[in-house]
Amino acid sequence: MFIRQKKNKSGKVSIQVIDKANGKYTLAKTIGSSSDVSTLSKLMKEAEFWIEQKLGMKELDFTQSDLLLEQLIDSIQQIKIVGTELLLGTLFDEIGFNVIEDELFRKLVLARLCYPVSKLKTVDYLRRYEGYQTNEDDIYRYLDKLNKTQKRTVEQISYAHTLKVLNNTIQIVFYDVTTLYFEIQQEDTLRKTGFSKEGKHQNPQIVLGLLVSTNGYPLAYEIYEGKKFEGDTLLPVINLFKRKYKLDDLVIVADAGLLSNKNITSLERNNYRYILGARIKNEKQSITTKILSLNLKDGESEVIEKSEQLRLIINYSQARARKDKANREKGIAKLEKQIKTNKLTKAQINNKGYNKFLKMDGAVKISLDQTKIDADKKWDGLKGYLTNTALDKAQVIENYRHLWRIEKAFRVTKTDLKIRPIFHFAKRRIEAHICITFVAYKIYKELDRRLKELQSTLSPEKAIEIAKTIYGITATKPHSKQVFEKTLITNEEQRNLARLFNLV
Q1: How many CB atoms lie within 10 A of CB 366?
Q2: For residues 223 and 236, what is the distance between their CA atoms, to the nearest angstrom?
Q3: Is 16 helix (H, G, I), strand (E, B) or coil?
Q4: Buried b vs exposed e over 38-56: b needs ≥16 C-beta within 10 Å?
Q5: Which fold does the domain 170-277+307-313+387-422 belong to in CATH?
Q6: Can you point out the beta strands (E) in 417-496?
Q7: Contact assessment for residue 289 and residue 387, using Cβ atoms and an 8 Å cutoff
């Protein structure tokens, strides 16, 4: 095929594509005509493109469908999942994690989002579905390297991106801890038995502390030995974060589990402002009397001044009252069943949970203490918040409620990202595994933010699920041997995701 410029009687020039077949020249396509030089130049380019497309189609013989199919199949070199790289890999780069110039780091993070399994199974997944060749030894060597060099780097990247998302302002941070247990019997220097939030008190565990910003974007984390008291983890994480980013004015939000006189004193000594969940039932009698005499209605709150700087804010919620009542009745029903079957002993009479409602009559008889039950009912629906900030009571309550975001972070890392079971015993590799999960969660949160920004009804989980169904094909044109790649978008939900994030 070639391009012919044919001058017409009108003075215009026609741009034509001429084809030679069986020794004869025939007109294959008239692209257009014009007398304008610039227009003719554009028509020439269109003709060149048309020829290129036409020759590409001629790579295959359309006259024989069976041969066409055979040629197509034989031309394929590789089929692999590409949607996850197009979606999550782009977010990985845009957040800034690509400054860590190591492809294996990228692969391990994205695999944690898409297929969170053991490192051995990850090797198999990468080979089968992404065409990436590695082995378990390579991954373990990389985990050792990662532990030594990259924890602070990924925290720095996450902080810088979060700062940008929040318009260069981070004033309120949220802190909480969780525990991660190991299915082993022997303790070591890191994995020790302690109070387990997962109810696995017999299993050695580690304690994970996580610091997040407003909206739950992860900022920093630390891990501690399993028997570490959670209240003792707060100040080390906060102080390190404050020094690293030279932040002078922070409000710390944490739940009642981190409330202790020691922590409050340390926070005030370091000039931190704070909002903490209060243990209102443990306040001195003069305070508890005030609380129970407030007679608040649904949604109402009141301030009790504890000192010149310290305020206790009490809020009442009917929904919380119904939940408190339901939980107590469920606990009492369980105790009554145990009493009837004589499964309770003197050892069970303590202040743990609903056991506080038990009493022992005489030497052997155990029964419920109705007086304690009636006293407990008075607290239904009441919740307290301790603060030294100047925020009004509505702002204090609203900020504390954002703690659910850190609870969700732990839930996502434990369920969707499957941070455990952890198949490592060396401290350095456990730390590296958690570092990878931290980065994966940051990408998850950014995906969540983008979906909300785009007003999409998709959840991050659903978006990832769809991305995992988008394949790419690498093939060779039979005659020219030119290699080409094509992303296969084959259904409406894939097209929707591709439109949202410009995947192709």
Answers
A1: 19
A2: 11
A3: strand
A4: eebeebeebbeebbeeeee
A5: Nucleotidyltransferase; domain 5 (3.30.420)
A6: 471-476, 483-488
A7: no
| Mean pLDDT score of the chain | 86
Burial class (CB within 10 angstroms; exposed 0-12, middle 13-18, buried 19+) of 59: middle
How far is 195 from 386, CA to CA, in rounded Å?
25
Edge-first strand order for the sheet with 76-81 is 76-81, 471-476, 483-488
Taking Cα atoms as reference points, which of 96, 81, 261, 257 lies closest to residue 162?
A: 96
pLDDT in tens, 265-304: 888 888 889 999 999 998 999 999 999 999 999 999 999 9
d(CA 368, CA 344): 11
Q: Which residue reads 């199974």 in tokens?
A: 121
Helices 370-377 and 318-340, axial angle in degrees (round to 10): 170
Statement: the pTM of the whole predicted model exceeds 0.70:
yes
Residues 6 or more apart whose CB falls under 8 angstroms from that of 204 comprise: 181, 182, 184, 185, 186, 187, 188, 191, 192, 193, 226
Token pair of 254, please?
């944490």
Dist CA 148 CA 168 (whole Å): 29
* Alpha carbon of residue 289 to chain centroid: 43
User: Helix or strand or coil: residue 451?
Assistant: helix
Total length of the chain: 504
pLDDT at 73 over 80: no
Map out the domains of the chain as residue ranges. Answer: 2-58, 170-277+307-313+387-422, 318-380
CA atoms within 13 A on the CB side of 116: 23
- Parallel, antiparallel or unpaired: strands 382-387 and 311-316: antiparallel
- Residue whose pair of structure tokens reads 């001044």 in the numeric block: 305
Amino acid 50 reads W
Q: Kindly state the DSSP code that residue 296 receives in the 8-state scheme.
A: P
| Cα atoms found within 13 Å of the Cα of residue 23, Cβ hemisphere only | 0
CA 487 to chain centre: 27
**Residue 323 token pair:** 């939940």
3-class SS shares of the chain: helix, strand, coil, % to 5: 50, 20, 30
Q: Are 5 and 26 in contact (CB under 8 A)?
A: no
Number of Cβ within a 10 Å radius of residue 90 = 14
Confidence class of residue 81 from pLDDT cuts 50, 70 and 90?
very high
Asked if the bond preceding 218 is cis, omega within 30° of 0, the reply is no
Q: What is the CA radius of gyration of the chain?
A: 33
- Listing DSSP states for 125-153 in one string gives HHHHHH-----HHHHHHHHHHHHHHTHHH
Per-residue tokens: 21: 């077949």
CA neighbours closer than 13 Å in the CB half-sphere of residue 178: 18
Using DSSP's 3-state secondary structure scheme, residue 260 falls into coil
Structure tokens at 493: 């939900």
Instruction: Sort strands 311-316 and 301-305 into parallel, antiparallel or unpaired.
Output: antiparallel
